[in-house]
């Protein structure tokens, strides 16, 4: 399955430095502190790339030497929404580049009987419909959770084109699912993986990101 980078899918430049960071977090033997620190560096790049997709407006400021600098600033109010639990790992990166940003949360889990994504909890700003939303989740695998989360945002009044889905790794299957259902939602990722295996893990992959980040992958 081939995925082409275009106006709705934004892949970080695959520089040697980014590949070195990926090498660290994909290493099964890396310690948790290094995993958290290194993934945070990639997440920071992803958030910056996501903000680049938002509308900007002119803003003039006075420099310390008395000159006017004709600059810009993000035009719309923004909001982050993390998909718990793994998406919470991306909140610090967003706050680092957008201090004071409001962050909502969505909890979606697979129903043990139907095997379908089920919404268990959401807490979103009351004025969410007036904001551009950075939806945060490190993994886009099958796309089931992403579709359910986007449904929640649209149900709260957010336009598709006002949603930027930010994730660390993306499987072609998940990208295709989001594109088919929500063609105007934009996605930002640092890697497009080869495919999913029979257990819906990405290849070459990273394992369970949430377990590795929060330290719940060991007894």
UniProtKB/TrEMBL annotation:
InterPro entries: PRTase-like, PRTase_dom. Its EC number is 2.4.2.9. One of its GO terms (molecular function) is uracil phosphoribosyltransferase activity. Pfam families: UPRTase (PF14681). Keywords: Glycosyltransferase, Transferase. Residues 13-216 form the Phosphoribosyltransferase domain. SUPFAM superfamilies: PRTase-like (SSF53271). NCBIfam families: PRK00129.1. This is Uracil phosphoribosyltransferase. It comes from Dactylosporangium roseum. The gene is upp.
């Amino acid at each position: 399955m081939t995925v082409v980078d275009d106006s709705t899918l934004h892949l970080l430049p695959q520089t040697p430095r980014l590949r070195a960071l990926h090498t660290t977090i994909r290493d099964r033997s890396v310690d948790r502190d290094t995993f958290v620190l290194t993934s945070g560096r990639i997440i920071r790049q992803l958030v910056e790339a996501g903000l680049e997709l938002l509308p900007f407006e002119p803003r003039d400021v006075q420099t310390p030497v008395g000159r006017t600098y004709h600059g810009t600033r993000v035009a719309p109010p923004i909001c982050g929404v993390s998909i718990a639990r793994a998406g919470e790992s991306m909140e610090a990166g967003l706050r680092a580049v957008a201090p004071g940003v409001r962050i909502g949360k969505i909890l979606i889990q697979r129903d043990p009987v139907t095997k379908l994504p089920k919404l268990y909890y959401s807490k979103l700003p009351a004025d969410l419909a007036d904001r551009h939303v950075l939806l945060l989740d490190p993994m886009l695998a099958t796309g089931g959770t992403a579709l359910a989360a986007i449904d929640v945002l649209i149900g709260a009044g957010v336009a598709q084109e006002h949603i930027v889905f930010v994730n660390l790794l993306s499987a072609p299957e998940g990208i295709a699912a989001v594109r088919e259902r929500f063609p105007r939602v934009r996605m930002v990722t640092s890697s497009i993986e080869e495919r999913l295996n029979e257990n819906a893990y990405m290849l070459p992959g990273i394992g369970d990101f949430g377990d590795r980040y929060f330290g719940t992958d060991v007894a």
